[in-house]
Amino acid sequence: MADRRKVVVTGFEPFGEHAVNSSWVAVQELERIGLGDAVDLYVCEVPVEYQAVQELLPSLWKEHQPQLVVHVGVSGLATTVTLEQCGHNKGYMRLDNCRFCPASQCCMEDGPDCIQSVLDMDTVCKRVNESNIGVVVSVSKDAGRYLCDYTYYMSLHLGQGHAAFVHVPPLGKPYSGQDLGRGLQAILQEMLKQLEDHKDNGPCNHTH
Question: Per the domain annotation, does 58 fall within a domain?
Answer without folding.
Answer: yes
